[in-house]
Amino acid sequence: MAITNPLLKTALENLVDVNGKFDKDIQEGGAYYRYPDANLYQPNGITCKNCAFYNAEEHTCTIVDGYIYDYGMCRFWNIPDSKITAVVIAPTEYIAMPQQTTGVNIMETMMPMMMMFMMMAMVMPMMSGIA
Ligand code: SF4
Question: What is the CA(50)–ligand 1 centre distance, in A?
Fold first, then answer.
């Protein structure tokens, strides 16, 4: 079943009436907007183009601020089952995104250093054998 719930749609619209539109930010309170080149769900039909909040003529969204692309998406998508072409499984890349916005990504920072130590651990015994 798609996440197309009229009550949820109305609740989000009411929230926007009170607080204003969500920004696109990938952080708490933001819409986690994905531009088309980063929208991994395009093949599934999860795109703004199919979303109930989208205004295609103006490239705007009822609840998310700014210019909205046909093939982008955000975490508030509201798309009927008939427009979704496959089961959607959240890739780990999507789940990991909030870590990347906090500044230092430990894995990205540590990985080159860990690779260097591993290389040294392999090369040093070989070099000591040559000497
Ligand atoms: S997926 Fe829907 S709610 Fe999200 S930005 Fe696109 S049109 Fe708006």
Answer: 9
